[in-house]
Design goal:
This protein is of the alpha/beta class. The chain is built from three helices and six strands; from the N terminus they run ααβαβββββ. A six-stranded mixed sheet has the order 2-3-1-4-5-6, covered by helices on one side.
Length: 141
Amino acid sequence: AQNVSMLLEWALPVLLRSISIDNLLLVLGCAITENQIVFVCPDITRLSASVVSILLLLRPLSWPYPIIVTLPVHLHVYLESPVPVILGVTSLPADHEIPPGQTIVDISDPGALVISGGGGGVISGGGISGGGGGGGGGGRG
């Protein structure tokens, strides 16, 4: 229990500076429904803190699937994994198409952009990469 609180003291503030509460709840909902969640950020510290925070915020539930805090570039083929996984990448491949059941959380800049696969498009954004203002279901597809 002490280790969890120490990890949350380090990781949670980093995550909350990168993502709104609405988006955080959306990502937690994706985790609970066993979607694949991909965090994208070139800053390794922010990336690892975000992945760890989501896992800790699921408590008392636990994530029974693979967790890859930082996926190396040469292993980007795992982005196409058919199983639920929470992972972090420093960048997405240019030709990456978001499959159904995958949620991309771009925390590169404040106001994280959350994109869902399967035709959902941009489901929440804060102005990153032309994502528009929060809420809504339109956008890219």
